[in-house]
Amino acid sequence: MKASIAMALASTAAILMTSPLWADGRPPKIPMEDFFRLPTKTAYRLSPDGKRYSFLQPWKNRLNIHVAPVGGEAKRITSSTERDIRAYTWVNDDMLVYLQDKGGDENYHVYSLSTDGTDVRDLTPFEGVRAGLLDDLEDDDTHVLIEMNRRDPRFFDVYKVNILSGEMEMVAENPGTVGGWMTDHRGRIRIAYAMEGLKRTILYRDDEEDPFRPIFSTDFTDSVIPAGFTGDDEKLYVMSNLDRNTTALYLFDPKSGNFEDMIYQRDDVDLSGIIWSRARKKLLGVSYYTDKRQRHFFDEETERLFDRLKKRFPDYSVGISSMSKDERKTIIAVASDRMPGKLYYHDLDKPEEFELVADLYPWIDEKQMAPMKPISYETEDGLTIQGYLTLPVGLPEKGLPVVVNPHGGPEVRDTWGYNPEVQFLANRGVAVLQVNYRVSTGYGKKFWMAGFKQWGRKQQDDITAGVNWLIDRGIADPDRIAIYGASYGGYATLMGLIRNPDLYRCGIDYVGVANLFTLLESIPPYWELARQKMYETIGHPEKDAELFKEISPVFHADEIKAPLFIAQGANDPRVKKAESDQMVEAMKKRGVTVQYMVKGDEGHGFHNQENRFDFYRAMEKFLTEHLELE
């Protein structure tokens, strides 16, 4: 590893100067359940007229929708006892729609209901079908646009659905290539994003009566992604990294197929989205992530609002999570790496007034939580790896037990903010390392592509380099290092134990991949359009058969020496239970017993509160034993 290392890390001494002094200099041990139980309230949404808000609140240990007049008493309007309500929104001032699956199968149904809890209707009452909300049709009080793979499980068509009667009409039929649809500001489907092998094509039409026609094509490594129409519905804002490394925002003419103006760019990171005003039909700004979320504004009024919010809530991340249709009534979200979140009702016409409507986790004392600090280091082949290090409060920064926590995806990235898993481990005296290894998104095209066909290889090396960096600095106790991750992170856990058997004391694989051959054989049908891209980024099971044998943990179970704990949801549609079963069986053939937890009512991760408790209780016991925690 190269010697040049950059790190932004506050010293423990500085932390203690601003924190209360506990009996032994450390915060008290917080019950595990406090980190993983349901919030008091969450997901506040304002009605279009701004007179009421809705929110999710636990009832019988499941998140259900409640509705209240602003400042008034709330009423529960759903009665779910098997699964949390996953997402919902208002359609008009008296009706909402929500999404819910069964047992974690991710085949979401879309339901509508009145604000008094009556007229509940399953708008997509079809077994084995996955549905989602494409557009709530802001100016249409009785219809929504729903995407659904009812006709063919591989492809999503678009239906206009009456929320009162349930009547539906297909308004866009997928020709078998479309991976995404986009509406204009009048709710008309004007853009389709086609995926044909490795080719990506934007399809456009002037009106819903017209046929779609291709207006721009690229290879999948060059992104040209529509982000929204201009206010007059004539031109497009697109995010693109064409002929550059990072994505920038452009104005694009769909009639000519030409890029016009570059609106905003950064050379260090990709842009992540636009900030748009529905009421004013105006582009307000863009967002992006460096070590934290950042915004750049084009609108002075919006910039003044966020400046005011930052002054009102210094040292916190602030955002607007919901607005009334006229964008004058708002719900302000306030959070940090040590504070999981508070929500305030704020009327923009009363700039000094903020009403606290929800402290999501009031039992979490941010003074007892650990700061999440950005770090960076260089790899042997010259890449700069970004990540985060969270150190337990009140302990010296030397010789600490460590949990390395690679993120899932893998084509996503870790970001700064409150993470209950990280804070739980830090409270137990453990340092947590999170690494945005190559192929993580947000750092530009070159960094992403450097991870192609590097599962278990250079991506794993990036994680290992981070561990060695901690050891070299004396932060980590080299004899007390564990690795834990979910999904791809579970895969990285297994490969870490295989490739570095003397580095890790133990590992926890949560819904992780064990066999690349069977993973690609069993992907959900609606991922089929991405198959060729997966062959390029992960590998081809026939052309790269030797590679797959090399990087599939199930074929190297004999190299694992450390204790292993595996957790799996029986209904997981992404990483099937067979992945974990194979790994457990391979270990058994060696005469090694693997601690194996399976939940029959879960999918890709445990969402029901009692199952989360079981998992983290077992995790704590496992780590306490093998990392010799106090």
Comma- or semicolon-separated keywords:
nine-stranded mixed β-sheet, disordered N terminus, alpha+beta, globular, 12 helices, 18% helix
Please describe what this structure looks like.
By secondary structure, the protein is an alpha+beta fold. 18% of the residues lie in helices and 35% in strands. It has 12 helices and 36 strands. A hairpin with a 5-residue loop joins strand 29 and strand 30.
Give a short overview:
By secondary structure, this protein is an alpha+beta fold. The chain is built from twelve helices and 36 strands.
Number of strands: 36
Rg for CA atoms:
25 Å
Annotation field: number of helices? 12
Spatial strand order of the main sheet: 1-29-30-32-31-33-34-35-36
Residue-averaged pLDDT: 94
Helix proportion of residues, in percent? 10-25%
Task: Describe the largest sheet.
Answer: 9 strands, mixed
Q: Low-confidence spans: pLDDT under 50, at least 5 residues?
A: 1-19
Q: Output the structural class.
A: alpha+beta
First and last CA, distance: 32 Å
